[in-house]
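Shapes recur. Our protein:

. . .
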Amino acid sequence: MITCGNNDLISKKFSDAYSNYIYEDDKFANSVYAFDLGFTHFVCLNSNTDSTYVNNVGTVGGYASTNDFLQAQMVWFDQHMTEVNARPTKPRWVIVYAHLSPFTVGRTIRLQRWVAYFEKWKIDMVLCGHNHAYSRSK
């Protein structure tokens, strides 16, 4: 399972790698995709500024800012979780993962918007990297 981070987006156009791993019908944007494995549903979110989508630099999206890109992901996430919860057999667990976290001691303020959606859908676990420190919440 891959998710892009800030270092991936600085030195190269990381988005090209996703065409090798993620099918078009399962993704919303670079590093924004979902899949099932066993009884678990996984959702990957892009917590970074992706120039393919932001500031009209890229060829798709054309979001004016990172905040607009992050909010568009939450619209996608909300619609996606509505579909997941409408399934006749719902997943036993839902795990969301991304590079930056809204929860850790080095809070990323722009990601705080995600917390309400995680709580709304009762996400079982959120896994993130970047700060390389252990933290957990109730």
User: Anything to note?
Assistant: The first strand starts at residue 27 and ends at 29. The mean pLDDT is 80. The two ends are 25 Å apart (CA to CA).
